[in-house]
């Protein structure tokens, strides 16, 4: 897998960003995945991710999941 990064402007970084999303978001549920989304006043979309310890106790596994999600998010932000 190649190195995947999004610019800081395309990511949710602060706890306040996640809290604001939770109050004004819509939700898509799948068996193993929950996506929350809301419109914003910015030019593009932003991605934030959280992977619970319930998914895996091992940080290595959780980080792999985050990298896969990041890779998918990058596909949506590329021109």
Q: Gyration radius, to the nearest Å?
A: 13 Å
What is the number of beta strands? 2
Low-confidence stretches: none
Order of helices and strands: HEEH
Strand content: 5-15%
**What's the number of helices?**
2
Broad shape: globular
Through-space gap between termini: 20 Å
Q: Reading side by side through the largest sheet, how are the strands ordered?
A: 1-2
Structural class, please? alpha+beta
Q: Largest sheet at a glance?
A: 2 strands, antiparallel
Helix content: 25-40%
Q: What would the average pLDDT be, to the nearest integer?
A: 82
Summary keywords:
2 helices; globular; 35% helix; two-stranded antiparallel ribbon; alpha+beta; 79 residues
Report on the structure:
The protein is built from two helices and two strands; from the N terminus they run H-E-E-H. It starts with 14 loop residues before the first helix and ends with a helix. Strand 1 (about 25-30) and strand 2 (about 35) form a beta hairpin. It is α+β, with helices and mostly antiparallel strands. The longest helix has 19 residues, at about 60-75. It has a two-stranded antiparallel sheet.
Layout of strands and helices, then pairs:
Layout: H1 15-23, E1 26-29, E2 34-37, H2 59-77
Antiparallel strand pairs: 1-2
How is this structure best summarized?
The protein has 79 residues and is an alpha+beta fold. The protein is built from 2 helices and 2 strands.
